[in-house]
Amino acid sequence: MDARGSAIAPNVDKGKVVRSRRLWSKVEEDKLTHCLIDIVNDGWKAENGFKAGFQRELEKNMRKMLPGTDIVANPHINSKIHVWKKEYGVLSDLLSKSGIGWNSTTSMIEVDDEEAYDAS
Q: For 69-85, b where at least 16 C-beta lie within 10 A, e where not — what string?
């Protein structure tokens, strides 16, 4: 890990490094979340998503918040947003099931009905 808490993890295939994978720190993810909120407030949000160029704008904002960062729009920001969308979809599907809910106090998913859990 570097001084900002991020790391590059090699993806190894048959002993050869194919491509590096970035591991985001909690601070970096929090800053990206704040940058997303900022660009929405600045008018980058369109009706069905974001306007073209929003990832470059996020990259510029990330450089302001984290000077010296190596995060770039493609592949880092693009990949992180893709992962967040996938995780959101899974959680949304799970929480739509009867007997499964969100506890705001503990910030955890709760299963009220074992049958609902088994059906998931």
A: bebbbeebbeebbeeee
| Nearest CA among 101, 28, 37, 105 for reference residue 69 | 28
Question: Can you give the pLDDT at residue 73?
Answer: 93
For residue 100, give the DSSP letter: E
Cα dihedral: 120, 86, 71, 56 (round 10): -160
What is the pLDDT at residue 24? 93
CA dihedral 1, 75, 78, 23 (to 10 degrees): -20
What contacts 51, CB < 8 A, 6 or more positions away? 44, 45
Q: Please, what is the Cα angle at 56 between 58 and 45, to 5 degrees?
A: 65
- Higher pLDDT, residue 14 or 66: 66
Q: What is the DSSP string of 16-67?
A: EEEEEEEEPPHHHHHHHHHHHHHHHHTT-EETTEE-TTHHHHHHHHHHHHST
pLDDT of 6 strictly over 90: no
- 3-class DSSP state for residue 103? strand
